[in-house]
Design goal:
By secondary structure, the chain is mostly helical. 96% of the residues lie in helices and 0% in strands. It is rod-shaped, with a radius of gyration of 30 Å. Keywords: Coiled coil, Membrane, Transmembrane, Transmembrane helix.
């Protein structure tokens, strides 16, 4: 192998190392983003259940008041 090939290999190795670091950073960001999405889904589900319970409660209350008239 000549000097030129060694230089190209060292450049390629440095680029590969840099790309691997960027990929690891992106994977970390993706995992954090996915966790945030999961948290939002959990909140949405809890809110939906709370909203449905409130609707049922309001229906019961309105039924009681209608029957009292």
């Amino acid at each position: 192998m000549n000097d030129f090939d060694e230089i190209l290999n060292s450049i390629n190795d440095a680029n590969i190392k840099k790309l691997r670091q960027e990929i690891q950073g992106l994977e970390k960001e993706h995992n954090e983003f996915q966790k945030s999405l999961d948290d939002i889904k959990d909140i949405k589900e809890k809110y939906a259940i709370s909203w449905r319970l409130m609707e049922i409660l309001l229906f019961i209350i309105s039924s009681v008041f209608k029957n009292k008239r």
